[in-house]
Design a protein that fits this description.
The structure is a single chain. This protein is α+β, with helices and mostly antiparallel strands. It has one domain (31-156). It is built from five helices and six strands; from the N terminus they run H-E-E-H-H-E-E-H-H-E-E. The strands form two sheets. A four-stranded mixed β-sheet has the order 3-4-5-6, covered by helices on one side. A hairpin with a 2-residue loop joins strand 1 and strand 2. The protein is elongated and about 110 Å long. The N and C termini lie far apart (113 Å). 15% of the residues are buried.
């Protein structure tokens, strides 16, 4: 069976049209997002492409992208994340008014070794990554396996000794 010239032209046009639709749907299905990591110079925000609809809410999408950590090329430039490898979202984040509550599950060793400097960088990374949401109150909760509940990340910080002024007698 031989196709007529008109049928071949129509088939070629149809294939070209479906290819264009596929191309535009793939490019339109992504959006640039900014996630913030850390380097020797301080905060280092980078642009990533995220598939639309790949995660639930905008908060989840931003956090999922942040938790992926820096790429190999970014790490080679000295970019790092204070958020420990293996950290995942524990529950979907809550956003109400200007308050965003983030629920994380971190490796137990990371919680045991959390220090004040790492804590500050983690808060900065999450805060600046979620900045487009216009939050005014950011709460970072972490799963505590001992308590069996989410508690503030700050609960894992070591105690700061209270300075005492010696009195002379």
């Amino acid at each position: 069976m031989r196709f007529s010239t008109t049928a071949k032209i129509l088939l070629s046009i149809l294939l070209a049209f479906t290819s264009l639709i596929a191309f535009f749907s793939l490019t339109a299905a992504q959006e640039p997002v900014t996630v913030c990591f850390w380097s020797a110079q301080g905060q280092d925000c980078v642009e990533r492409w995220r598939r639309l609809g790949s995660t639930g809410t905008e908060v989840e999408g931003l956090l999922a992208t942040l938790l992926e950590g820096p790429t190999a090329a970014e790490r080679a430039r000295g970019v790092r994340s204070a958020i420990p490898v293996g950290t995942v979202l524990g529950e979907p984040p809550l956003q109400s008014g200007g308050t965003v509550t983030v629920y994380l599950k971190m490796p137990p060793d990371a919680l045991r070794t959390l220090d004040h400097a790492s804590f500050e960088v983690i808060v900065e990374q999450i805060g600046w990554t979620l900045e487009p949401l216009g939050w005014r109150d950011l709460r970072i909760q972490v799963w505590d396996p001992v308590a069996g509940a989410h508690v503030p990340l700050s609960a894992f910080l070591p105690q700061i000794p209270v300075p005492r002024k010696e009195t002379a007698l």
